[in-house]
Amino acid sequence: MLFRSNVVAVFTSRRRSLVLRLKVRHPHRRHRVLDRAKPRVLVLTNQAAGERVLPRRSHRGFFIEGGVGAMQPLVECVPNFSEGRDRAAIERIVGVVRAVAGVTILDLHSDSSHNRSVLTFVGAPKAVREAAVRLVGEAAQLINMNVQRGAHPRIGATDVVPFVPVAGVSMYDCVQLAHAAGQEIYKRFGVPVYFYEAAALRAECRALENIRRGQYEQLRELVKTDVSRRPDIGGAQLHSTAGATVVGARKFLIAFNVNLDTPDVGAAKAIARKIRASG
């Protein structure tokens, strides 16, 4: 039985968040949650069907297999790409990730108002990196930033690609993963790359909102004359249709939307400043 393992990790995907709860089975006590224990498990499977994709609304029957001696590196990636309306295009972009062996898709959330989709997947570091790179390439082919419009700030077809350490890897490992992915993105597709959060090469680029300032429309002009706004990889111009991509390494992020019963944008911004990490 699965629960004979000393350590069991249970993942729950809720839109843009991934909840990891670690439990230790004690022979004389009920399961208890550990705050500081490290997971020693890897593969998500469906007990009944053997599938590797976690559905959005039901998590019953899904476990991570493995025991105390089975720890393997596990990284999460949460790319945000600038398409939330064209279902066929979204499926093509998600499809290139699904095709990479060793990657498990946890969640996909698309918003037509934002015209943006957020995909969450996990796997071994090399597989996750390859899936992320392929996603950027597919999005670059399908999304034209010169005509793309939506409520969410963005600078490229694939706006941001964060890598998150989950098990058996450190933040430093994810920084190296981000840098390698950025190099590969530019090499394969000619999409310029900025690095942010823990992977930032410049202090002013640690905060994502600093890179996004002015969005695609202004940034494509600013990079021609303002050296400080140029990408970390790439020259004095953005990709002609795909813009640029921000790649980084960060901790888990909890993001949610709130509907306010007021048209007052100022009230919304005041609330956001109180609760957002970025202010």
Features:
279 residues, three-stranded antiparallel beta sheet, globular, 27% strand, disordered N terminus, alpha+beta, 6 helices
What is the strand and helix layout of this fold?
Layout: E1 7-14, E2 17-26, E3 29-34, E4 43-46, E5 62-65, E6 74-77, E7 80-81, H1 87-98, E8 103-111, E9 116-123, H2 125-142, E10 158-167, H3 171-189, E11 193-197, H4 208-212, H5 215-225, E12 245-249, H6 265-275
Parallel strand pairs: 10-12, 11-12
Antiparallel strand pairs: 1-2, 2-3, 4-5, 6-9, 6-10, 7-9, 7-10, 8-9
Protein architecture, described:
- With 279 residues, the chain is an alpha+beta fold.
- It contains 6 helices and 12 strands.
- A hairpin with a 2-residue loop joins strand 1 and strand 2 (17-26).
- The longest helix is centred in the middle third of the chain and has 19 residues, at 171-189.
- It is globular, with a radius of gyration of 20 Å.
- Residues 1-70 have low confidence and may be disordered.
The average pLDDT score comes to 80
Question: Structural class of the secondary elements?
Answer: alpha+beta
Radius of gyration, in angstroms, nearest whole number = 20 Å
Low-confidence stretches: 1-70
Number of helices: 6
What is the helical fraction, as a range of percent?
A: 25-40%
> How many DSSP E strands?
12
Q: Please outline the major beta sheet.
A: 7 strands, mixed
**Element order, helices and strands?**
EEEEEEEHEEHEHEHHEH
Shape: globular
Measured distance between first and last alpha carbons:
47 Å
Assess the beta-strand content as a share of residues: 25-35%
